[in-house]
Amino acid sequence: MALTPCSDLSPASWLVSGNRRWNELVVFGPAGFPAYARLRFLPDPAFEGQSENDVDDDGIDPSTALRTVLETLSRHTRTPDECYFCLWEGWGSMIWGEHIDEDRPADTPRRPRIAPAFPSSVLNGPKVVVPHRSYLLFRGRLADIGDWDAAELWPGQPRPDMPDPAFIWPADHAWCVANDVDPHWAGIGADLPAIDELMANPDVDVVPADPREDQPCYR
């Protein structure tokens, strides 16, 4: 079942009304959870100033790792069938589409127009706004993550990829996953049993974190 766009933004009020600094909010979610952790998609930098291009490790597929974490977190909420998903609006043509370049050279084949992923009523509708970020809000079952019901790229060409959500949380606020565009990891806020279970899972690389501290980052 596809996720449903939300024009009512009140379920996201706990994101925008808190007093957490924006650079902590977008990577760890709201304050107040008993424990926090990082889901690493790449190992942390081995030395200061290291570039991601210098990492001798393919890491893990972020989408696969994220879904593995959510399988565990689904057991730590009373509302796995009522969850919310924020999709960052800054993904360019992946979401907004792309118009044909009419100034192309005459001998260049015309490219099909990449259609927007969602209708204008969604793209131009209300958005969840925090400093430096804006998001489209969706609602649905946790098991349906990734099913955005996005339009085809052009007629007959399915849309193969869509970004992962930037925020995911259940209606009971039992936990929150924050997956910002910049870090090599996603932040998780939850109760201690949930974090302990995630760190014990050998299929994902989850380590404890303190949102008040500087986190490892690549150049």
Task: Please name the defining characteristics of this protein.
single chain; 219 residues; alpha+beta; nine-stranded antiparallel beta sheet; 6 helices
Please characterize this protein's 3D structure.
The protein is an alpha+beta fold and 219 residues long. The chain has one domain (4-97, 112-208). It is built from six helices and nine strands, in the order E-H-H-E-H-E-H-H-E-E-E-E-E-H-E. It has helices at 13-16, 22-28, 62-73, 93-96, 120-123, 192-199, and strands spanning 4-5, 35-40, 83-88, 128-130, 133-140, 167-170, 176-178, 185-190, 206-208. Strands 1, 2, 3, 4, 5, 6, 7, 8 and 9 form a nine-stranded antiparallel β-sheet that branches. The model has no long low-confidence stretch (mean pLDDT 93).
Q: Which series of helices and strands comes N to C?
A: EHHEHEHHEEEEEHE
Assign an overall shape.
globular
Q: Low-confidence segments, ≥5 residues, pLDDT <50?
A: none
Whole-number tally of structural domains: 1
> What average pLDDT do the residues reach?
93
* Radius of gyration over C-alpha positions, nearest whole angstrom: 19 Å
Please give the largest β-sheet: 9 strands, antiparallel
Q: What's the short story on this structure?
A:
This protein is of the alpha+beta class and about 220 residues long. The chain contains six helices and nine strands, in the order βααβαβααβββββαβ.
